[in-house]
Write a structure and sequence with these properties.
Elements (H helix, E strand, L loop, with lengths): L10 E9 L5 E9 L7 E12 L5 E11 L10 E14 L5 E9 L7 E11 L5 E10 L4 E12 L5 E9 L5 E8 L9
Antiparallel strand pairs: 1-2, 2-3, 3-4, 4-5, 5-6, 6-7, 7-8, 8-9, 9-10, 10-11
């Protein structure tokens, strides 16, 4: 690679704090920076993996995202909570791909105030690439917001999705909008 043509998108520092007896990560911290000198913090995530199966797949993942903090210090010193996401995977395929998930976002650390919930159902091909995802979103009052039916139509040789369609429907199955997405990976750094 030509280092003069590289474009830094962000830099992450990942700290795995605890493991189970099989070596699976139970807790970790991820700091995302805008620059390599770590001068501009974008966010810090504190991640807890629970209910791991024999293949190491976590049935429950809780992600606390903060605006401020220092990855060198204890997570209890992090401030300015952005949100908390709880991802519950109820069904995996034999290769560990999530087939059925519920993603609930909260605005508070006690998980009392829901922002939104997404029920996600996905299918994969034999290369473990997503073929289709259905995402039903409800708001904080558990009212239907929308349903997206995402088709992943084409992948490049690195496994990046190139073409996808995203129709979005309301509660009466009326089409709200339809997106055709084409991703171009012009450089290896983008892939």
């Amino acid at each position: 690679l030509d280092s003069t043509k590289l474009v830094l998108l962000d830099m992450q520092e990942i700290r795995n704090d605890s493991f189970d007896s099989r070596g699976n990560v139970l807790s970790q911290r991820v700091a995302t920076y805008a620059t390599t000198d770590r001068a501009t913090l974008l966010d810090i995530k504190v991640i807890k993996n629970e209910d791991l199966n024999s293949l190491g797949n976590a049935s429950k993942v809780t992600i606390y995202k903060y605006r401020l903090g220092d990855i060198e210090k204890d997570p209890s010193t992090y401030t300015d909570l952005i949100d908390v996401s709880v991802i519950t995977t109820t069904k995996f395929d034999l290769r560990g791909n999530a087939l059925e998930q519920i993603v609930t976002r909260y605005s508070d650390s006690s998980l009392a105030t829901i922002i939104e919930t997404q029920n996600i159902t996905s299918t994969y091909d034999f290369h473990d690439r997503q073929l289709h995802s259905s995402i039903v979103t409800t708001n904080s009052k558990n009212e239907f917001v929308d349903r997206q039916e995402i088709d992943y139509l084409k992948y490049d040789l690195y496994g990046n999705v190139e073409d996808q369609t995203v129709p979005r429907f309301d509660s009466t199955d009326t089409l709200i909008d339809y997106k055709v997405i084409h991703n171009t990976y012009a450089a290896l750094v983008a892939a």
